[in-house]
Design goal:
There is one protein chain. The protein has 183 residues and is an all-alpha fold. It folds into two domains: 43 residues, Up-down Bundle (Single alpha-helices involved in coiled-coils or other helix-helix interfaces), CATH 1.20.5; 118 residues, AhpD-like (Up-down Bundle). 38% of the residues are buried.
């Protein structure tokens, strides 16, 4: 398999250099997955625009979707990054393990979201009527559904990029589900 090298600021386009500078200023570093998007002169900017777009679902709800989708796609990079972000959004480690399995029994509204996100990825968007009904019954709206699907798409993009490139994970590893359950 072709080995991918994580690009550095000096090896990317001027446009991407400016994005690297912005990421460095905001995050203190340029995550390897973001840097890998910069192999394309356009992909990093496009992806960052998608990630920072306005949404009717808040950051905590987006982390539910991110964790569910990343677990389903077995993306070690995104699981690591979103475990860190999940903590920053107030989830405990035990809650994130449950979310990764596609449920959130500690919060009825997030549970319906996690179940729908899992169902969406399992069915490639052909959600079961029961999952949709539960989502709406929990208080989510049609606008929220559209934004959930955009978030699923965002995460699939990054999951697939990591799967194809296998670049090094530069976040603390998320615990494997089996080990986390045994603890």
């Amino acid at each position: 398999m072709t080995r991918f090298t994580v690009p550095t600021r000096d090896t990317v386009s001027e446009t991407n250099q400016a994005l690297f500078d912005a990421l460095q200023g905001k995050l203190g570093f340029v995550p390897n997955l973001y840097a890998t998007f910069a192999l394309s002169p356009n992909a990093l900017g496009t992806y960052l625009a998608l990630q920072s777009a306005k949404s009717s679902i808040n950051a905590k709800a987006r982390e539910v979707v991110n964790l569910v989708v990343s677990q389903y796609n077995d993306c070690l990079y995104c699981l690591a990054a979103h475990t860190m972000l999940g903590r920053m959004n107030g989830f405990t480690d035990a809650q994130m393990i449950e979310i990764r399995k596609g449920t959130a029994s500690f919060d009825a509204k997030l549970d319906a979201l996690a179940r729908l996100a899992r169902n969406l990825v399992e069915t490639r968007g052909h959600a079961d009527a029961a999952a949709m009904d539960a989502f709406f019954a929990a208080g989510w709206s049609q606008e929220n559904l559209v934004d959930v699907i955009v978030t699923v798409g965002d995460k699939i993009i990054s999951n697939y990029l990591h799967a194809a490139t296998d670049i090094p994970v530069d976040f603390p590893a998320a615990p494997p589900l089996e080990l986390a359950e045994a603890a």
